[in-house]
Amino acid sequence: MSEASATQSLLNVNALLDNPVFAGGFGLASLGAALAMARRGAIAGAGMIRRRLLVNVEISKQDPAYPWVLAWLSQPRPQTSFLAKRLTRINKLSVATATSTTPNGPTRASFFLQPGYGRHIIKYKHAYISVNREKQATARSNTGEPHETVELTTLYAHRHIFEDVFTEARQIALQANEGKTVVYSVRNFDWTPLGEPKRKRPLTSVVLDEGIKEGIVGDVKDFLQRQKWYIDRGIPYRRGYLLHGPPGSGKTSFIQALAGELDYSVAMVNLSEIGVTDDKLAFLLTKLPERTILLLEDVDSAFVNRKARGSDGYSGPTVTFSGLLNALDGLSAGEERIAFLTTNHIELLDPALIRPGRVDMMIRIGEATRHQAGRMWDNFYGDVDQDGSGKARFLNKLDSLGLFGSSEDGAPPPRTSTAAIQGLFLFNKDNMEGSIDMAEALIPQKIEG
Ligand SMILES: Nc1ncnc2c1ncn2[C@@H]1O[C@H](COP(=O)(O)OP(=O)(O)OP(=O)(O)O)[C@@H](O)[C@H]1O
Ligand SMILES: [Mg+2]
């Protein structure tokens, strides 16, 4: 179930409660069954009375709402009445740890206290809710992880409280990610956040050549406003972008900054990674989190793969060309999808990829230009080099080294990458003269061997 439909169904809890044949959807199956049975009078006696009096909602770990509900449960809830104080203390807690590696520092960890396994009682507004967090004995067939559920039970008369619970839980989840970009990567058969959500990267910190950034950002924003246009014309509502160019030119950084700008998450798959197969990719795309940019890195590996299969009949456990096309064409039409593909080897790609709906826009993100080097200088030394004389000397030196492509003898000029310029500036933090002196370091070194 997609996150969007989950939200919708929880807002429709009332409607569900009144519908005896309701099944599935937001883990309410047991509730629907209980109500239906009760109505048919199939069960008599105490069991029926219990079912009539109580309402329970089961949320499984696979549901996007599961972490929200746990976060909601860990909120401090000061109780005033004597009874509530005695009844509603959660004594058993468990720790959830999230770790992240910062680019130039050690791993950071943060801890969240969650209700532990077992039964707890909480009071929310006027209602008491019994919470049962359980690990089931059965495991998920594809990952081997045990099933886990949280079950909330309350009086039938208080059933409307669930609507508020889920609305609040979702709000908490949204707040926690405010100003952050969540990057999902593939773990087993699931999208798992890669470390903690990162602070949004400002678009201005990614310096592309003149007009490129504005062109892509404008196109994506235009696309996002045109859902109706696409639907009216029966065109699948998706758009694909291919960013190609040498390593360290800012492709990945740009996509992350773009996601931040749009308030989207990024779901990243590296196609060169062993173990990402066609089936797995197709499966993952059916459960892409809401409001995400799909990022397929190193798409050229799908083509290398096709060649390998031609020669020895074995494709290896990675994505094949047809697997990639299926992923882009998508079997489940109708949903919004923004896909970014990246590659360092445009020459390996097949023209079949460049078809509207698969890849609508192809952009080369190249070696550093004079414009980019200047803008990056401003980002790093703008405050110490106010008259711009340092910048002029730096750019002229790069020019004389031939780094902006002005070689006279016809040989391909030694170009440099924006990543290398960033590296030079990082090495010479607060020391612009150092960067000018060391500019030769930007000349790419041939790796002998
Ligand atoms: N155009 C740029 N503007 C700002 N920073 C950049 C730029 N290009 C590279 N960098 C910096 O260099 C590092 C590597 O960049 P990034 O990973 O985005 O490159 P890439 O193009 O995705 O490379 P690859 O093709 O190897 O995946 C990052 O720390 C990034 O901040
Ligand atoms: Mg990259």
From TrEMBL:
One of its GO terms (cellular component) is mitochondrial inner membrane. The keyword Hydrolase applies. It catalyses: ATP + H2O = ADP + phosphate + H(+). It is a single-pass membrane protein. The chain crosses the membrane at residues 20-38. One of its GO terms (molecular function) is ATP binding. This is Mitochondrial chaperone BCS1. It comes from Neoarthrinium moseri.
